[in-house]
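Appendix C reproduces, verbatim, an entry submitted by the partner laboratory led by Prof. M.T., so that reviewers can inspect both the input and the predicted structure.
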Amino acid sequence: MRSIRLFCLVFCLFSGVGLTQVNAAIFSGIIQSISENQKRVVIKSSQGKEKSFSIPDTVPTTFNGKKTKFDQFKVGQRATVFTSASGAITRFSVRNPTALKSSRKTSRLKKDQPKKEMKAKKNSEPVRQGTLSQEWTQFRGPGRANISAETGLLKDWNRTPPKLLWTARGLGEGYSSVSLSNNLLFTMGTKANEEVVIAIDVNTGEIAWTQSNGSIFKDGQGNGPRSTPTVDGNVLYALGANGDLSCMTTRDGNVEWTKNILQEFNASNIVWGISESPLIDGDKLICSPGGQGAAMVALNKQNGATLWKAAVPGNPKAAYSSAIIVNVGGVKQYVNFTHDGIMGVDAQSGTPLWGNNRAANKTANCSAPIFSARNNAIFYASGYGTGGALLRLSAAQNRATAQLGFFTQDMKNHHGGMIEVDGYVYGSSDPGVLTCINLSNGETVWQNRSVGKGALTCADGHIYMRSESGPIALVELNPKSYIEKGRFNQPQRSGKPAWPHPVVADGKLFLRDQDSLLCYDIRSK
């Protein structure tokens, strides 16, 4: 009873107005027959089910992402029919799998032209298949620890600065970072009045395909999506700022299923838009809509069906963070930062296990929590004058508790993310101080404000610190002192803050900046 009372105290009651549940749908498959005069098409799904559709003249029709007339469609092409909650057809999208042939021409960069900008192709084209030296298939990378396994990278940018390989353009608006798998980069942006998922050739910067993922989110801080696609084998999962969640094939962007998590789970959108990147664990997709009795949900990744809903006391609304997996004492749990505080739920059943609000603010909780296996602890932090807290976890017999270890005001991490290495946490603390804290005792080891507020990642013994308004710096991963190894300024900066997290993979550094994605060679020669 004591633990239940404590848990209820942690999560304050949120009284919000939920949206009425709406169930839009899609049907996707191969065109079996088509009538140009009647605008009627028969589609066969991958499960063998056939359906006939009459496409109204008022419905937008696209071919390989471009608007086109109905008479351009043929048998054998892959089609997707989008319908509203009332069953009315709202969009008809067709892609041509037989036309997916590599047309790279001579797209490899010449050695004497390392900074040549690659023009983004608008047509849907594949890329050659292969395996990257290191993949980064989700937001914050393997285990969501924000640490790349890359080695053999440049260690002194003052002597040898990173070389710009290519710049991809035509990505639209948004703060999405990138994921990588099988020679493709995946990000999200905007096109016309839609949010889209975009696939980019990792070697050339050419756009391979784009696919719609719902209506555009508009906000004074910047329009478009905020989350990063999650890759799982041959499919990816993308969550838009308005709550549109889709499963797409990585090869050509074909939509396997889609739903709106805000509508389905009786939730309302948050001020600056849904920013969570989906978590895939086995057959489950984990996300946090913040609905009534559905603070967090587990979906069947194959079809989007609900497996469980976490009825967290107080019905905390979604924040801007992304969930992580934690295993302690034989109890597997999913942990995420909500509007009211951090929570842990049982991975198998969705049963709430514990909660804490010491490092939560009442405005926007953004940074993903980090798990320290060395300390069996969770560290989480927020900005707006708040700080960070370490929670010591214990678990046994399907129960788990989280006890406050310490609180510090020296880690007011807004949305730039943090890393934990060997019992030390590194991150940017408002108003822009790169900080190192010892997690065993909460001691602040060092601070430095020369780079300013920003987002970071880690690779090969170094921190890659991206200032939201200035340079990108290489900082030695050192728990004793701040040692900078060089910096450079991104060319042709947009007018928006550089909030997307930097990514290091395949010997490259990727920097997303609104309409552009820059790729730098950071391999040691």
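Residues 1-24, 98-131 have pLDDT under 50 and may be disordered. Additional entries are available on request from the coordinating office.
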